[in-house]
Amino acid sequence: MSGYLKPNEIAIATVETGAVKARNSLSVMLVLGFVAGAFIALGYLLYIRITAAVPSEWGSISNLIGASLFPVGLILVLLGGGELLTGNMMAVPLARMKQRITTWEAARNLIIITIANFAGAVFVAYAFGHIVGLTASGVYLEKTIAVAGHKLDESFLQAFISGIGCNWLVAIAVWVSYGSKSFSGKILGIWFPTMAFVAIGFQHVVANMFVIPAAIFEGYYTWGNYFMNFIPVWLGNLVGGMLFVAGVYYAAYLKPQPKVSPIAVNDNTIAYDKVKAQAN
To answer: Gene Ontology cellular component (predicted)?
Structure first.
């Protein structure tokens, strides 16, 4: 038996996964959404704690090191169990495209998971970042402020397009993980696309739920600043997951294809042969 699924088989499996996600109870969505937001925040906290201490002379190597560590959060979500908004923005719409769920079920899931992810990420930002002090002083605070400020400085359009790029990669990571039947295969499938989006600098709506509030808790920026960033990044992540991954693979593997009539093919072949004979 093969240790992985082919792309068309991943598409079928993802539809069923999306349908299950959309029909989970409210309590399950809230619990799994909370831990997913917390796991992503912990991955980002790891990124900050490591990269902040790297000498500035190392340049982009610092970013590469941090990017290679951030995927820990997504690995915990997908292997440990969690409901992450960006992954659901791919799987749940795909289930809707195949008419396995209703539009309301899809929208309900994304709304609830958004709220639950926010609660989990903000919990980590406040409890570990602010109270424990892991992002509250020294080079760690400086790094947190710099990262949050860079995200907030982008225009609506820039943040929106950045969000598309982010979830194109994150949703592909989730997609590939669904295709592996082993833990090691899933980890590798998750690791590299996730590392790529972090190294590039794309905006991830759930990651932002940690780093921007972490800066806010230390007296920098405002919740108004945060929500002006949240809207375009959320929309961009939705487009990246729903259109660039779910939409593409729905069209390639799941959309009903028109049947070609054997009679029409034979008639065309005969007509072509006649024209060819006359030309000769």
So the answer is: plasma membrane
